[in-house]
Design brief:
CATH architecture of the largest domain: 2-Layer Sandwich
Largest sheet: 5 strands, mixed
Number of strands: 24
CATH superfamily of the largest domain: DNA ligase/mRNA capping enzyme
Strand order of the largest sheet: 2-11-10-3-9
Distance between the termini: 43 Å
Radius of gyration: 29 Å
């Protein structure tokens, strides 16, 4: 969207505004220049995923814009970046008519269906050959966008295809939807665009993890989450879910007087490029054109094989006649266009029978109902157990023992019961009774106000003790290899392991008497336990299992302190001043470190040789890679990616999550993929091998 010259100019203007960030623009023209700078950085961050500005610097510029518009409210424009933040929605959504009906697509499920589609297209168009454009069928919530005189004037849901809900306020929260776009450059006055709103798989997982941590039911799948979010009444919540929009077609347009049809609007491929050039996310990179149906079929099948590697959920491919004149010639039925068809991927849903519900106790005392179903093969795996999360889910879905249920599993998302098939009930089904007492220690259960989860508050509950130890030795915590869940449970049942410090007091002579524990496995376990004493402080903090404290928060805390018990001295207000730590997390940390038993456990760990000081932080600050940024991609010849990242961090290096101008080194292995291609386009990124990296760190 931006040329190299424009990028340089806008970067220069950015620096100029940052220097003067305490002085509001004095003229409307200066304010427009500031808005242009902010739009540019939004595009780099949200569309290109290649920011050229630190978050704090962007915030400075945004506050400068807000301050100026407060002084001069008559200078506010509808497409100002500040206008993305809308007022809360009250009452029902208004129904609005689409300029052109949003029809469904005809579906195909195998190559024969596609060949039949091709035969009909050739027959009706009276052509010997037709070019098709093939693109992913995004699995989210359908939207329609209307722009008039370059300004976004309407965003609507699909609704019944003829009319949908006006969700313009929520659409304005989506950073990949421009509030204005230069359609007039192409002679376009009014335009209606069709698209799909999605949630990136990583963002979906993070959001669900937060819900589960709060004791709430996670969202079923990215598709339902995206579609449901569009109709949320609170725009702030819409922003928190980080929706993204892909636009895939132009359904209607009018031209400005005296303008002819632009070349880009003669083919579907051209229209996607036009939208991309105007700052929209369109499937330009994922779409391809073919002049023979066999090539179309091959591309669809290859995409299906790699669907789980994509950052978004897709449920098929869409095949469209590329030439708009031929599309017009083919026309449409009352249900679907004759010039397009969807090739649907294999289903990720199945039905099964709910056999029983068991109640498990987690390390924080949460009681989780787990459905046991007749084993069923879905999405490449056999599913027999499904978490029901809490009592509210059971009530909401009206589940009963003996029900036939619809089960879904999409990509890496955990299996989920979508609903019970009540119409298939025989009358022999039984109600699911949630226990009043802990199923392990029989203590009375307790539910905090505002939470959906019941908890056993007996800290000595055997189930909680075991779960805490399993968490402590896990890969992301102390990473004691060879000491998995099965061994923790076995040693606990034998009475040889009673608490976390007991891990460092195991009697290996007794363990050697067990079947499957030879000299080599005993030696490996000893070494792994001994090695864990030197783990970085953030792993120990995470391993303690403090409620609401994940890996990221553990690193924030470790960077604040020298010794683990320094956390005992921090007040809730001091903790809340740290990055991404809110009242709930801070309160949980204070509660943990005010418990005398927890302090005694920590002191015992130190006495047993577990290092609780932050020497890793000091070493990293003085490390040979200090100030350098790294990203590892592909399959490395000898190292696991996580080990390579740890080696870089131990020497002061910082690991980035994606390729951008902030990246210094991309370390590539086999099948490096898109990260390598993106890095080649950024001159400042050095692309090196694992051998180069090892040489760099002297190993």
């Amino acid at each position: 969207m931006y040329t190299k010259e424009q990028t340089i100019q806008l970067q220069n203007e950015t620096r100029s505004f940052l220097k003067e960030h305490n002085n509001p623009p004095a003229t409307f023209e200066e304010l427009e220049a500031l808005r242009a700078v902010l739009r540019f950085h939004e595009y780099r961050y949200y569309v290109e995923n290649d920011p050229l500005l630190a978050d704090g610097e962007y915030d400075q510029l945004f506050k400068l814009l807000e301050a100026t518009e407060k002084i001069h409210p008559d200078w506010i424009t509808k497409d100002s970046p500040t206008q993305r933040v809308g007022k809360s929605l009250n009452g029902n959504f208004i129904t609005v008519q689409h300029l052109v009906p949003m029809l469904s697509l005809d579906n195909s499920y195998d190559s024969e269906d596609l060949k039949d589609f091709d035969r009909k297209v050739l027959q009706l168009s009276k052509k010997k050959e037709v070019t098709y454009c093939v693109e992913p069928k995004f699995d989210g919530g359908s939207i329609s966008l209307v722009y008039e005189n370059d300004q976004l004037t309407l965003g609507a849901t699909r609704g019944n295809g003829v009319a949908g809900d006006d969700i313009t306020t929520n659409i304005r929260q989506i950073r990949t939807v421009p509030l204005s776009a230069a359609f007039s450059r192409y002679g376009i006055q009014t335009i209606e665009i069709r698209g799909e709103v999605l949630i990136n798989k990583n963002n979906f997982k993070k959001y669900n993890d937060e819900l589960v941590e709060k004791g709430l039911a996670p969202l079923a799948n990215p598709r339902n989450a995206a579609s449901g979010t569009l109709r949320i009444k609170d725009p702030a919540e819409v922003r928190r879910r980080h929706l993204e929009a892909f636009v895939y077609s132009i359904s209607y347009y009018t031209l400005l007087p005296g303008h002819e049809l632009p070349e880009a609007l003669k083919t579907h491929e051209g229209s996607l490029k036009l939208l991309w050039n105007l700052g929209f996310r369109s499937p330009v990179k994922e779409s391809k054109t073919f002049s023979h149906i066999d090539a179309v079929i091959d591309y669809c099948l290859k995409f299906e094989e790699s669907r789980d590697n994509l950052p978004y959920e897709i449920d098929g491919m869409v095949i469209k006649v590329n030439d708009f004149l031929i599309q017009e010639q083919l026309g449409m039925t009352s249900h679907h266009p004759r010039w397009a068809i969807a090739f649907k991927f294999k289903a990720r849903q199945a039905t099964s029978k709910l056999l029983e519900v068991r109640f498990q106790v987690g390390r924080t005392g949460s009681i989780t109902p787990v459905a046991k179903i007749e084993p069923v093969f879905i999405g490449g795996v056999t599913v027999s157990s499904i978490s029901l999360f809490n009592e509210e889910i059971i009530k909401e879905k009206k589940l009963k023992i003996g029900d036939m249920v619809l089960v879904e599993r999409a990509g890496d998302v955990i299996p989920y019961i979508v609903k019970s098939l009540e119409e298939l009930r025989t009358g022999e089904e039984k109600e699911i009774t949630f226990p009043k007492n802990c199923p392990v220690c029989n203590s009375h259960l307790f539910k905090e106000e505002g939470e959906a989860v019941w908890r056993c508050i007996n800290i000595e509950c055997p189930a909680q003790v075991v779960e805490r130890m399993i968490h402590f030795v896990s890969k992301d915590a102390l990473d004691i290899r060879g000491f998995g869940e099965a061994n923790v449970r076995k040693f606990f049942e034998l009475g040889w392991l009673k608490d976390i410090p007991g891990i460092y007091k195991l009697d290996f002579e007794r363990i050697a008497t067990l079947e499957g524990f030879g000299k080599k496995s005993i030696d490996n376990l000893k070494q792994a336990i001994e090695k864990s004493k030197e783990q970085p402080l953030h792993r120990i903090i995470f391993g303690l299992g403090i409620r609401f404290v994940g890996e990221t928060t553990a690193k924030v805390l470790a960077n604040k302190i020298h010794h683990l018990l320094d956390l005992q001295q921090l007040s809730q207000e001091e903790l809340q001043s740290l990055e991404d730590i809110g009242p709930k997390v801070a309160g949980s940390i204070v509660h943990f470190f005010s418990n005398a038993s927890n302090i005694a456990m920590i002191r015992e760990l130190e006495a047993l040789g577990v290092r609780l000081t932050n020497t890793h932080k000091q070493l990293a600050a003085k490390g040979t890679l200090s100030g350098q940024t790294f990203l590892f991609t592909g399959t490395l010849p000898t190292l696991k990616r996580s080990d390579a990242e740890a080696m870089a961090e131990a020497r002061g290096g910082k690991i980035l999550s994606g390729v951008s101008s902030k990246l210094n080194y991309l370390v590539v292995g086999e099948d490096a993929g898109s990260k390598l291609e993106k890095a080649k386009k950024i001159n400042t990124v050095r692309i090196i091998s694992e051998a180069d990296f090892l040489k760099m760190i002297g190993e």
